[in-house]
Amino acid sequence: xxxxxxxxxxxxxxxxxxxxxxxxxxxxxxxxxxxxxxxxxxxxxxxxxxxxxxxxxxxxxxxxxxxxxxxxxxxxxxxxxxxxxxxxxxxxxxxxxxxxxxxxxxxxxxxxxxxxxxxxxxxxxxxxxxxxxxxxxxxxxxxxxxxxxxxxxxxxxxxxxxxxxxxxxxxxxxxxxxxxxxxxxxxxxxxxxxxxxxxxxxxxxxxxxxxxxxxxxxxxxxxxxxxxxxxxxxxxxxxxxxxxxxxxxxxxxxxxxxxxxxxxxxxxxxxxxxxxxxxxxxxxxxxxxxxxxxxxxxxxxxxxxxxxxxxxxxxxxxxxxxxxxxxxxxxxxxxxxxxxxxxxxxxxxxxxxxxxxxxxxxxxxxxxxxxxxxxxxxxxxxxxxxxxxxxxxxxxxxxxxxxxxxxxxxxxxx
Length: 414
Known about the structure:
Blueprint: E1 4-12, H1 19-27, E2 34-35, E3 48-49, H2 71-86, E4 100-105, H3 111-124, H4 133-137, H5 141-150, E5 156-159, H6 165-179, E6 184-191, H7 196-205, E7 233-241, H8 242-247, E8 254-263, H9 276-287, E9 296-300, H10 307-321, E10 330-331, H11 334-337, H12 344-358, E11 360-361, E12 384-385, E13 390-397, E14 401-408
Parallel strand pairs: 4-5, 4-6, 9-10, 9-13
Antiparallel strand pairs: 1-7, 1-8, 2-3, 6-7, 8-14, 11-12, 13-14
Helix pairs in contact: 2-5, 6-12, 9-10
Keywords: Acyltransferase, Fatty acid biosynthesis, Fatty acid metabolism, Lipid biosynthesis, Lipid metabolism, Transferase
EC number: 2.3.1.179
Pathway: Lipid metabolism; fatty acid biosynthesis
């Protein structure tokens, strides 16, 4: 199996329209959550969201392509172009375009276009529909439009696994490069579901925070948490075989050394008691990595700020780390980005890699009254400087999906 490294990153998030801006605000504990402005939320229980601000697709591609893309596709294209540029990679020149692939995930896809298309149908029948209505809605358009934008003619896949989608897209890309199916894959996740239907469905479920204070609404592991805050955006990373990266003297952010995805087979919304699926995912990622528990020095938790997730993920981490559970720092960056759904795992993979590279662990903000059942080291409210050899990024999704990605600092030898 070939070694796989990360050589480029791009991000569109509620904290900023670049990795640098996002990371700088994240480690300083700034929140991207604010008042919901996309539509009139007067009759909705949720009044807050983590919205992307000041985004312009024209900064990345020709604007005449915009009408063919839902917002979630726009974010995917932008983050992928940034990642390719960061990696100094030009498909067709740096690497043969048929050896460059795309693996992009989303939980919900083009829900904004779906809602607008339905309104057009109601107002004027099918004759009133935009000819590209179908292709703005379907979930694989992020992966497809990314490939078109960067000229990638290799493997192209779309992952739809709820909130684990971005993580699985990265993991599947890792596997494809290991097998030799590609030399380079742009992988990640994207979401743009801050719409009446997207927000309303979570309100109806009772899973969303009704806290009137936007900055304090998302409170992972805090006793006074009352639900998640929905976010949006995209994260893209360039995964590359080590041989290819070394041959072109690419900057290497880190190495991916473990990936596991398993099912709870328990419930469509609640994790299994004790987080047993998450335990198996973390153990699976570790078992293929040639690392030991002692090497794990940070975990970026799924940490949604919901009762069951935070409690069961805590129990899962305890089961996984055993005697080291109270010694390993953990943080939920959703406290600042909101829950970016299908984009969450990809953006949090970027945060995990940057924590390894910089030695800075981002905090869990709004953690002031710890839940008695959540008693680990969640790096409350202030970032922490340390050294990190290896770190896990956890992602859990509706339907019982559990995914773990394991990254380590790059070394010439394992």
